[in-house]
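#struct-help
A.M.: can someone run this one for me? Single chain, 160 residues.
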Amino acid sequence: MGWTKRQFVTQAFEEIGLAAYVFDLQPQQLDSALRKLDAMMALWNGKGIRLGYPLPSSPQDSNLDEETLVPDSANEAIYTNLALRIAGGLGRQPQDVTKAAARAGYEVLLSRAAMPMEQQFPGTLPVGAGNKPWNNYDNPFVNPPVDPVLAGQDGPIQFN
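D.P.: on it. Structure tokens below:
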């Protein structure tokens, strides 16, 4: 089971010193933080960091109690970065520890999302002595590259 959006929001408020057991969070504050959370996750999704977070089709469709399917390894990166985003609007200065944790967590997510592009041999490369003509139809060169099929983890397939 993943965290709910409410858990990310309340943990972010706790990170900047506005814990729910001391301060009563207003519904407007929760909604504002939820919109910032959704916007941050949409931005990360656009950068290729796809964590399984359910993005709403509009801000009105977002639900605080909706469960996310985010892996546990990304939780700290999400709530610390959200804390940095909501701190300025509340007149709070995040601690250096929070800033460092947010940066380190984001860099881990970026490194996990980075995948090298597949490379194909060019059609002008000779096949070499190990390839016999009956395997290659008497072509002395490697087969020319084919156009790749582009598809994200959760996106539609696009043909180039």
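A.M.: thanks! The CA atoms of residues 68 and 101 lie 21 Å apart.
D.P.: also worth noting: The first strand starts at residue 149 and ends at 150.
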